[in-house]
Amino acid sequence: MNGVTRLVKKHTETVHETFLLARRRRDVRRLAKELNKAGIPHTSVTPAAAEKHEGLWYWDKPLPQLRMLFKSWEEGRNVDKNWVETFLKNTTLENEYTYRLGVFDTVLASEDDAPELIQGVKYPAEVMNFVTEGLSLAQTLESLDLDDGRVEALKNALRSKVNIGPSQVKVGTIHSAKGLGAESCIIFGDVTDGRHSMLIDDPVALAEEKRLYHVGVTRARNKVFIVSGVFGSERSPALS
Q1: Pairwise CA distance, residues 48 & 29, whole Å
Q2: Per-residue exposure over 124-138, b if at least 16 CB sit within 10 Å of its own CB, e if not
Q3: Does domain 2-59+163-239 have CATH number 3.40.50.300?
Q4: Residue 98 in 3-state DSSP?
């Protein structure tokens, strides 16, 4: 699976949107789990179905905004006021932090560069140091009032430092992508030994398998990658 995450990281440097399409829902769950471990933000091909797949809903709001906030804070860049407000709404110390933000606003108003920052609805990165009273980034992450899996996915994304937004990588079954399209697709075309033998011996099932992969391949507007050896030991005979 490490080879898959390396492919995704490299591929998304030049491609705006990629679908990762597997045959089965359990394979989709495995993909989501591995992407989270590798710190690669992602979402579901079909958002309405995201909650059915563990790991795919993690990168719904507020995680993208929190990622941008913490990334900018860590790099010393100005942070969007909306990101700070999102953080305040999702922390166990909301009231205390909100009070400190009000104090920071008062201090900022007396600074020479305040009008320029306020006009752009931005805060200097130090606002987070002030609001959290000097807590480290790691300590601040622990104050988030979110599902443990989501916090871990956020930590991994910050640690990996990949420059990938969740809308760039969408994961789902081949069926779920029907009628949709992306710039490129990575399709998992492997099957178990047993299914491989069954498809060889059953022309009807093989024809259905070919129609399935036709759906997957034609989702790509530009490039298609067929990956084998992740969820089975054989490439599907439908792809021969």
Answers
A1: 16
A2: bbebbebbbeeeeee
A3: yes
A4: helix
Structure tokens at 222: 């530009």
- Pull the structure tokens for residue 152: 């871990």
| DSSP annotation string for 17-39 | -EEEEESSHHHHHHHHHHHHHTT
Give the angle 78-80-84 at the CA atoms, nearest 5°: 110
Domain boundaries, the chain: 2-59+163-239, 63-145
Q: Which residues of 104-119 are buried (b: 16+ CB within 10 A; e: fewer)?
A: beeebeeeeeeeebee
Q: Tokens representing 97? A: 């932090």
pLDDT per residue as tens digits for the range 121-151: 789 999 999 999 989 999 999 999 999 999 9
pTM: 0.88
* Tokens 């054989």, residue located: 234
Within 10 angstroms of residue 27's Cβ, the number of other Cβ atoms is: 19
Token code pair at residue 3: 């080879």
